[in-house]
């Protein structure tokens, strides 16, 4: 329980530091959001009035404390660019899209990586092993946005399986919404699956050479039983750690992929906010994204401790 409590406290501390850094960085960079939304034909006096209405004339630390308390209470403020629309409303509209894309991507990553790893683990040094190594190396080398553009060209323009640039909202048609996310999810999943396959197959190969595998074989246990009952569990420990890092990559990569596929999610909203210097919206989005990433990594660490209780025992000894 102490281990879990420490992980939760560390997650809250990380989120606090992320919020403070985001607020301070966007407060000291060049540019004025009041000028960005007011246009060129405005006097200095009118600009100062707008800055006062937006709270930009106050001390940065006072603004941060006010923003932090409002954020904790569920009211991160209003957007500059969207003319006073509540940030919580904007996030509520886009967050389900990003979570759906990330969840679908993670599901594909797990299915692809575990299926390929388990089907080829006993063929080390064979032609199949060389083919898998070639494609994993190619997948690791290819960035997500390149895979996205490749999918748009092949499946959108050549095979016409979907209309590039078309976005169907989940409120209009959920099945159409999921179908529209599949190409983008694959573009995110393939490079990350290649990383996890490389990592998981290496762990599986190492575990298969262990003494307990030879002992189990000498007792008459089948290879499939040994693989699924013992080897996979031990090999999953480092793979779950890697999966926690991949989750962060999925959320950060979705920002670019959403632009490539014209998906109206958090990433697209973040880029709009940055281009318009909408600081309250940027800060809220950064904290929300950091919250999702930190929670995913914290849950991965807690999950590993339940898979292998020796981790918590080792920490207690230290």
What does this structure look like?
- The chain is an all-alpha fold.
- It has two domains: 71 residues, no CATH class; 224 residues, MetI-like fold (Orthogonal Bundle), CATH 1.10.3720.10.
- It contains 13 helices and no strands.
- Helix 10 packs parallel to helix 11.
- The chain is globular, with a radius of gyration of 24 Å.
Write the layout of secondary structure elements.
Blueprint: H1 2-28, H2 33-38, H3 44-54, H4 60-72, H5 87-120, H6 127-141, H7 144-158, H8 174-208, H9 211-218, H10 223-260, H11 266-275, H12 279-307, H13 310-317
Helix pairs in contact: 1-4, 1-12, 5-8, 5-10, 6-8, 7-8, 7-10, 8-10, 10-11, 10-12, 11-12
Number of helices: 13
Rg: 24 Å
Quickly give the CATH architecture of the largest domain. Orthogonal Bundle
According to CATH, the fold-level topology of the largest domain is MetI-like fold
Task: List unreliable stretches of 5+ residues.
Answer: none
Q: Taking all residues together, what is the mean pLDDT?
A: 83
Which features would summarize this protein structure in a list?
318 residues, mainly alpha, MetI-like fold, 2 domains, 78% helix
Quick recap:
This protein is mostly helical and 318 residues long. It has helices at 2-28, 33-38, 44-54, 60-72, 87-120, 127-141, 144-158, 174-208, 211-218, 223-260, 266-275, 279-307, 310-317. The chain has 13 helices and no strands.
């Amino acid at each position: 329980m102490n281990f879990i409590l420490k992980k939760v406290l560390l997650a809250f501390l990380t989120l606090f530091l992320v919020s403070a850094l985001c607020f301070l960085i966007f407060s000291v960079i060049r540019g004025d959001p009041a000028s960005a939304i007011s246009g060129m034909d405005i006097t200095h006096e009118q600009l100062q009035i707008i800055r006062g209405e937006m709270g930009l004339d106050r001390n940065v630390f006072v603004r941060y404390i006010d923003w932090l308390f409002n954020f904790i209470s569920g009211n991160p403020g209003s957007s500059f660019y969207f003319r006073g629309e509540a940030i919580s409303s904007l996030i509520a509209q886009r967050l389900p899209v990003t979570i759906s894309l990330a969840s679908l991507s993670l599901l594909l990553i797990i299915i692809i990586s575990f299926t390929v790893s388990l089907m080829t683990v006993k063929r080390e040094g064979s032609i199949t092993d060389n083919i898998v190594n070639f494609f994993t190396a190619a997948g690791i080398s290819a960035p997500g946005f390149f895979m996205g553009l490749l999918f748009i060209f092949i499946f959108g323009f050549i095979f016409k399986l979907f209309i590039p640039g078309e976005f169907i909202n989940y409120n209009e048609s959920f099945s159409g919404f999921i179908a529209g996310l599949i190409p983008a999810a694959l573009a995110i999943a393939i490079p990350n699956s290649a990383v996890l396959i490389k990592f998981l197959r290496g762990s599986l190969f190492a575990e298969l050479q262990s003494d307990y595998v030879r002992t189990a074989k000498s007792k008459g246990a089948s290879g499939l039983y040994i693989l699924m009952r013992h080897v996979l569990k031990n090999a999953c420990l480092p793979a779950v750690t890697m999966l926690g890092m991949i989750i962060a990559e999925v959320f950060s990569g979705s920002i670019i992929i959403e632009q490539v596929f014209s998906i109206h999610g958090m990433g697209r909203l973040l880029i709009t906010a940055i281009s318009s210097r909408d600081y309250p919206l940027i800060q809220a989005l950064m904290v929300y994204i950091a919250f999702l990433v930190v929670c995913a990594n914290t849950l991965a660490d807690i999950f590993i401790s339940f898979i292998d209780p020796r981790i918590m025992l080792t920490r207690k000894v230290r």
